[in-house]
Amino acid sequence: MINESLNRCFELPFDELYPLFDDAYRISRVRFSDQIFFYAPGFIHYDTPFYRAVNKWRFPSVSVTGTGCQLQCEHCKGKLLETMIPATTPEMLREVCTRIMDKGGKGLLVSGGATSDGGVPLQKFVSAMGWAKEELGLDIVVHTGLVEPVLAAALTDINIDAVMLDIIGSEKTISRIYHMDLTVEAYDKSLYILEEHDIPIVPHVVVGLHYGRLEGERRALEILSGHNLAAVVVVAFMPLEGTPMDDITPSSPEEITRVVLASRLAMPEIPIILGCARPRGEHKARTDVLAIKAGVNGIAYPSEKGYDHARERGLGIRFSDECCSLLFRDIMASIGGH
Questions:
Q1: In angstroms, rounded to a whole number, what is the distance separating the alpha carbons of residues 217 and 208?
Q2: What whole-number distance in Å separates Cα of residue 248 and Cα of residue 138?
Q3: Coil, strand, or helix at residue 327?
Q4: pLDDT at position 44, please?
Q5: 262 close to 253: Cβ distance less than 8 angstroms
Q6: Are the C-beta atoms of residues 269 and 31 closer than 8 Å to each other?
Q7: How many CA atoms lie within 13 A of 257 on its CB side?
Q8: Would you list the DSSP string of 54-91?
Q9: Is residue 203 within 8 Å of 167, Cβ to Cβ?
Q10: DSSP H or E run through 109
Q11: What is the pLDDT of residue 337?
Q12: SS3 187
């Protein structure tokens, strides 16, 4: 059944997919109610006619490596790290967490540049994160990259709120974009490790990461469908100035929606989110509307057209200033924990 859904979503011409949209939308409504959740965490200023979120401390992103990254991936070259708050020692992380609380923030995303083996060096920061959760009451989401059992166990001990990692479904992409000599099974293994430690897992599928083309997205969804996940986030490659891929045309809204639709149909019991990384402007507006039609449960930084379309459909709209990876928790609260 999963393979059949994936075959249709990835192989049919887009205009032949519309009958599947009705199925996907119905699945979301039956399983997750008539609510849609919109997110506006602190790393982007968000001021719209329908929602205002301008306090940059509400749920900021923090890098434990500053701007440093050993992998220097083709699409990023460490540029994304420049937008994060640096906290390169446990003491600095405690100070940042204290400031977040003092500024009225609710939590933070702890991330950083990757080491040569594809993981983020988080181990020495676990104690500081545990302190921030226990003493300050902050929610903490971590981006781990590939993960080893010792880190998973430590994150379990501090009751981390969620773990995020990108799932890459193509060895070509792993090699050419990420500069690693690994197979896709490395990502499958990380998911098993996190699952064994009962950590809420919110993996990301990056549409068009392979030079703007669909390459391993289907395989990534096949891997994800075999795991117990808290939610799945679909994001899209965005060209960043000053990187080797800054002139690459990103995937179209239709191609992004293929992945959203396939995620919804292949994993009907799992919340699906359209994440913050996606092209802006009219591209974003069309992506948002199509994603809602395809049964997405949450959207980060929704466009005005996306917001209007959700209202036109009669969906109950809920906004949050936290990271969209916590959608699973919001859904559980909205449907009474069932």
A1: 8
A2: 38
A3: helix
A4: 85
A5: no
A6: yes
A7: 26
A8: --TTSS-EEETTTT--SS--TTTTTGGGGGSEE--SHH
A9: yes
A10: strand 107-111
A11: 52
A12: helix
Q: What is the largest CA-CA distance in the chain?
A: 55
The confidence score (pLDDT) of residue 1 equals 63
Beta bridge partners, 141, equal 109, 162
Q: Do the bridges between strand 298-300 and strand 139-143 make them parallel or antiparallel, or are there none, so unpaired?
A: unpaired
Block residue for tokens 């008539």: 34
- pTM (two decimals): 0.96
Contact in structure between 140 and 110 (CB atoms under 8 Å): yes
In degrees rounded to 5, what are phi and psi of residue 78? Answer: 80, 0
Give the C-alpha distances (Å, rounded to integers) separating 201 from 70, 145, 264, 284, 313: 25, 12, 17, 26, 30
DSSP for 228-258, written as a single string = --S-EEEEE----TTSTTTTPPPPPHHHHHH
Q: Which residue has the tokens 């540049």?
A: 113
Distance (Å, whole) CA 60 – CA 182: 31
The 10 Å Cβ neighbour count of residue 218 is 22
Average pLDDT of each block of 10 consecutive residues along the chain (338 residues)? Answer: 86 95 96 96 90 94 97 95 97 98 97 97 98 98 98 98 98 97 97 97 98 97 97 97 96 98 97 96 98 98 98 97 95 74
Total residue count of the chain as it appears in this document: 338
